Amino acid sequence: MTAPPATAATAPAHGGGAWRLVRAELRRRVSLQVAAAVIVLFALMAAAAPLISSLGGWGPEEFDKSAVDPYLGGLPLGPLGGVSAEHWLGVEPVTGRDLFARVVHGAQVSLLIAFAATAIVVLAGTTAGIAAGYFGGRTDTVLSRLMDLTMSFPSLIFMIAMMSVARDVNRILLMVLVIGLFGWPGVARVVRGQTLSLKHREYVDAARVGGAGPWRILARDILPGVAGPVIAYTTLLVPGMIATEAALSYLGVGVRPPTPSWGQMIAESVAYYDTDPMYFLVPSFCLFLTVLAFTLLGDALRDVLDPRGSRS
Amino acid sequence: MILYLGRRLLGVLGVLLAIAAVTFTIFYVLPSDPAAAACGKACSDERLEAIRAHMGLDAPLWRQFADFVTGIFTGRTMGTGQYALRCDFPCLGYSYENSENVWDLLVDRLPVSASLAVGAAVLWLALGLTAGVTAALRKDTLTDRVLMVGAVAAASLPVYFTAVLLIYGLIRLTGLLPYPQYVSLTSDPLGWASNLILPWVALAVLYAAMYARQSRSSMIESMAEPYIRTARAKGLPRRTVVVKHGLRAGMTPVLTLFGMDLGGLLAGAVITESLFGLPGVGRLFYGALTSGDQPVILGVTLLAATFIVVANLAVDLLYAVVDPRVRY
């Protein structure tokens, strides 16, 4: 695929003013406040997982045989999948592991992977995009070809395959790298287009005439100009990353049990969807809420920071 | 145009070769030794060597790759002596698991995955575009808000969640539909559709939401172009303006998305197929992963890549048809 030519001039979002706009938007719309609150809540939950789950009194890998009924195929005792003062969100069938503790620790794994993968994607994508857009010529040709090639890979199939062949490595690290490997071209394209439209603006030419070297121009003039779209794009990347992690873990090639992640919990609970719906709904709902919150926030950020939209 | 097409076809070939090389290196260099697996526990060194030679695993990696690529274009003879096996064009080798021809396996499973992908695609295009264009034309009204909130919510639902909801609601609870069992289109068209309707919907919900969002924003953008004002000023009916002028130009980003999505799904929707128990390419792939069946993994990956690359090419060519401003 040939990269589309850079669309007409886009106004770069400038530091201070843009943030004022974001804050104003946040104050104006309640849905955004809720979305931001959900994100903060889950992020806190993930960051302080051991602390929070200790409030409930159970560890994520502790069995509680007294909470399940051995005569009913190990289904939880009590209503709503075993919700009680002891187990706030109920327990897993068969093992009796505490769902609250597992979902909190699952948040840690899921969000850690999603954030780390996003960081890699954004860093690599921005670097490649700026280099391709600013230096042009052969650098651009090589990088653009590389983007096209990476985008032609059947990414999910490839991720699954790579995750399944690598055996004795840190699963979380591997997952971050594998997801990151296929994500960077999207960011790179956005940044490349933005850089192309910026590099011959008057203020950049003025800096060049003033004797600024390429690195100085890149850091002082180009980077702030691409920051707006990148931030918006990044927020919209996170839900995709969370969903990808969940999909991989769901398919059994992600984190290994007993480490919980949302996708892996959902995979285990699918078999119980009609006998113990709570078990299935708790991790599904967490996944849904987080993805939804990031999408809402990302949409709003894009409207503010990237008015003409760099969606390619 | 011819020149452009030729150049693009060469590019496609190059990309596929590169993907094959990467896949080959990753899956053949890795620790698992298929010869040892085939040989079993009580395995003498000589026998292991013989099996290696028969599988062609004793040759250097580049040689194996060269053989593999030649096999795709001309067919090849695998093994030597009395065990020699002729593998005809297009040869993707034999499964380690059950010694079946990989190409035959793929051809066998493809109709299922293609039925799933194409059916879902029709559904999500119809739903997504209608919702997106409606929202764009009624920008900032209640209709727009409701449609877009619905789209954001639907886009956040993982496919396994939608699938389980559908299975529970329409199969377990009410018994309205049968549990999907693939029947081929040619033998029983009605049965084909009624069995696939749930997987279609499950898959289409997510994509329809994404397409609604994308088509809304590109439609808003294209409706703001000066030539739309010109068309209106000429006195063209609103319908013509929207469909022939607005929609055509607004569809290019959607088309790009569509090429990638359909190409990616044609070679198997792994999760959807396994949830509904459909025997498609995705299931084949998943099974091959669990047993370390490298020829099958390589075959599916190449098939998927081919679909994606070809779909992208088709989309680029279609641009010229859809958007009169594009010329090659």
From TrEMBL, chain A:
Record localization: Cell membrane
Main location per the UniProt record: membrane
GO biological process: transmembrane transport
UniProt topology in membrane: Multi-pass membrane protein
Superkingdom as given in the UniProt entry: Bacteria
UniProt keyword list: Cell membrane, Membrane, Transmembrane, Transmembrane helix, Transport
The keyword Transmembrane is annotated on this UniProt entry: yes
Key word Membrane present: yes
ABC transmembrane type-1 domain location: 107-298
Transmembrane intervals: 30-52, 109-134, 146-166, 172-191, 230-253, 278-301
GO terms under cellular component: plasma membrane
Alphabetized InterPro entries for the sequence: BP-dependent_transpt_permease (IPR050366), MetI-like (IPR000515), MetI-like_sf (IPR035906)
Family under the similarity heading: Belongs to the binding-protein-dependent transport system permease family.
The name this protein goes by in its record: Peptide ABC transporter permease
Organism: Streptomyces termitum
TrEMBL record, chain B:
One GO process term, biological-process aspect: transmembrane transport
Membrane disposition: Multi-pass membrane protein
Residue ranges occupied by any ABC transmembrane type-1 domain in the UniProt entry: 110-319
Spans through the membrane: 9-30, 112-134, 146-171, 191-212, 254-276, 296-322
Primary localization class, coarse: membrane
Keywords noted in UniProt: Cell membrane, Membrane, Transmembrane, Transmembrane helix, Transport
Source organism, top-level taxon: Bacteria
Any one cellular-component term (Gene Ontology): plasma membrane
Gene3D superfamilies from the UniProt entry: MetI-like
Cellular compartments annotated: Cell membrane
CDD domains membership: TM_PBP2
InterPro entries tied to this protein: BPD_transp_1_N (IPR045621), MetI-like (IPR000515), MetI-like_sf (IPR035906)
Family: Belongs to the binding-protein-dependent transport system permease family.
Protein name according to UniProt: ABC transporter permease
Organism: Streptomyces termitum
